[in-house]
Amino acid sequence: MEIVHPHAAGIDVGSRSHYAAVGQGADQVREFGVYESDLQEMAAWLHAQHITTVAMESTSTYWQSQFTVLQQAGFDVLLCNGKLTKNIKGRKTDVQDCQWIQRLHSLGLLTGSFLPDQATEELRTYCRHRTSLLETAAVTTQKMHKYLRLLNLRLDVVVRDVTGQTGMAIIEAVCQGETDPERLACFRHGNCRKSAQEIARALHGNGRRDLLFALTQELELYKVLQNKIASCDAAIEQLLREQVGVDERKRELKTDPKPYKRVNKNAPQQMDLNQLAFQYFGGVDLLQIEGVSHSTVLTLMSELGAEGIRKFPTAKQFCNWLKLCPNTKVSGGRVLSSHIPKGSNRIKIALRQAANAIGNLKETHLSDFFKRVGFRKGRQAAVSATARKLAVIIWKMLTQLMPYNPPSQYLFLDEKRKLKLVQRIKKNIAKLDLKPEELGFATA
Questions:
Q1: Which 3-state string (H, E, C) describes the chain?
Q2: All domains of the chain, ordered by start, with CATH?
Q3: Residues of the chain falling short of pLDDT 50
Q4: Predicted TM-score (pTM) of this structure
Q5: Model pLDDT for residues 230-255, shown as the tens digit of each residue
C-alpha cells in the first residue's frame, strides 16, 4: 500500500509508561515514563526523528497530558478510538502495539476522534463534575428514603419529593429530635396535596437511635452536596459570561423570556440560561424547540461548544457520530441487519431524553412524528427516530444560523390560554354586535 504519511509515529499509551514507534525496526521504538520531563523528552526525540504527525489511542484519561504536550510541541496529533487500532491476532505487546499504530497511521488508515476547543473543554469539566455531584446527591437521597422507611416515617407516601420544601423541613425537625407527629405535620407547605392530618398519620416512628444517627449523617452530606452544586453553577455562569463577553456582537443579543419552559430541579437555578445560551450560540434559540430543556442546551454547550458542530460537514455525519443512524449491513444484496450501533455519549442521552419528553406532548409537529413512528415500531424506536430528527434540526440551526420554524407552530399552556381568551372575547363581541365606539376604542 502507498505510504500517505512518511513522517508518522505511533504511541501506545499506558498508565505507567508510553511506547513510541517511528518505524517497524526494533531500534525505532523507545519507552518513556509518564512524568512531565519524560513527556518533554519524548517530544524532543520525535523532533530529532523528523516526525510531523503522531497517532495515539484514547486510553482512559492517560492520553490527555501526552496529547497536550505533543500539540504544544507543534505535532499534528491524531487521537484514535481503540477499536480502530486493535491489533491482529497473536501480536499483543506494547512494542508491537505502537508499531502497529505507526503502520496504520503511515498508510492513512486511521481517523481522528472529535475533540472540542480549550474553552469548551473547560466548560465540559465543570458540567461533568456537576453531573457527578448530582449523581452522588441522588444516592444520598435514596439512603434518606431507606432510613426514613426503617424509622417507620413514611414520608415518601404522603410527599412526592422528600427533598422538597415540606420533606426537608420535616427531616430536619426529625434529626433535631422532634417526635410528635402533629408538630411535624405543621411543617407542611401550602402547596402540598396531602392534608396535615394524613401527614401526621404517616409520621409515627419507632425512634431507633442508630437509624436516626445515619439519617442525620445523610442529611448533612446532602446539604454539603447542594452547596457544592451551587458553587459549580456559579463557576459555570462566570465562565459562560467570560466566553460571551469576548465577542461584542454576542453581548448585544437579547432573546424573549420563556416562562412556559419549566426549569427542572436538577437544572441550574440561579443563572439565566435562556439568555446565556442565545448569546453563546450567536443568536440561535435552541429553547424554541419543544422538548428541549435547559439541561439539554447545557449539555450541547459543554460537549460541542459554540463552533464544534461545524466540524461535521453534513447532518448525516453528525447523526452518525452520535450513533443515531442505523448501521445497515448488506451481504449478497440482502440486508442482514439495520440496528442502531451500540454506545452513546452525553449528547445522545440528552437528545433521547428530550425525544421522550416530546412523546408526552400533544398537537406538535415533533410529537405527531413521534406518534407515527411509535404506532408502527413502538416507543423505543420512536425515541431513537425523534432524537435523530432533533439532531438534524439542531445541526441546521447552528450551522446555518436559522430559527426553529416547524410546519405547525406549537403553543405552550399560557399561550393557549391567551389565544382562547382572545377568541372568546371576539366571539362575545360578534354575538352582542358591539361597535368600537361602544367599547371605548378610538377610531380614525
A1: CCCCCCCEEEEECCCCCEEEECCCCHHHEEEECCCHHHHHHHHHHHHHCCCCEEEEECCCCCHHHHHHHHHHCCCEEEEECCCCCCCCCCCCCHHHHHHHHHHHHHCCCCCCCCCCCHHHHHHHHHHHHHHHHHHHHHHHHHHHHHHHHHCCCCHHHHCCCCCCHHHHHHHHHHHCCCCCHHHHHCCCCCCCCCCHHHHHHCCCCCCCHHHHHHHHHHHHHHHHHHHHHHHHHHHHHHHHHHHHHCCHHHHCCCCCCCCCCCCCCCCCCCCCHHHHHHHHCCCCCHHHCCCCCHHHHHHHHHHCCCCHHHHCCCHHHHHHHCCCCCCCEEECCEEEECCCCCCCCHHHHHHHHHHHHHCCCCCCHHHHHHHHHHHHHCHHHHHHHHHHHHHHHHHHHHHHCCCCCCCCCCCCHHHHHHHHHHHHHHHHHHHHCCCCCCCCCCCC
A2: 8-106 (3.30.420.10), 119-240 (1.10.287), 262-400 (no CATH), 412-444 (no CATH)
A3: none
A4: 0.80
A5: 999 999 999 999 988 888 888 888 88
